[in-house]
Design goal:
Structural class: mainly alpha
Number of strands: 2
């Protein structure tokens, strides 16, 4: 999915992704993924601590994405003028930032 999106990321940028992006380490060396477990290889205590630290950083981003989806700007297809998408997205992001200050 990351390859298909053709998003350009600088090498020094840290990417934090979930387990859906398993092959991203080969493409972007500075990426952080949680460690996946299986029936044959359960997680060790150190792996669980690492996964908890990764998820505690990611939860902040996921909460903001959820907030933006409540306004349906990211959840549905945008059907208005394309010129105004940036303006409306910035206004909703401003509401999100204002809400987090209170």
């Amino acid at each position: 999915m990351f390859k298909q999106s053709k998003v350009r990321v600088l090498p020094e940028t840290k990417l934090s992704a979930d387990t859906g992006f398993i092959g991203i380490k080969k493409i972007h060396a500075n990426s952080e993924l949680p460690i996946k477990s299986s029936k044959l290889k359960p997680l060790t205590h150190d792996d669980k601590v690492y996964n908890r630290s990764v998820s505690s950083e990611r939860v902040l981003v996921e909460n903001v994405i959820g907030f933006l989806k409540r306004f349906k700007i990211l959840a549905d297809r945008y059907r208005n003028r394309r010129k105004r998408f940036g303006l409306r997205f910035n206004l909703i992001a401003g509401i999100c930032n204002f809400d987090s200050l209170i």
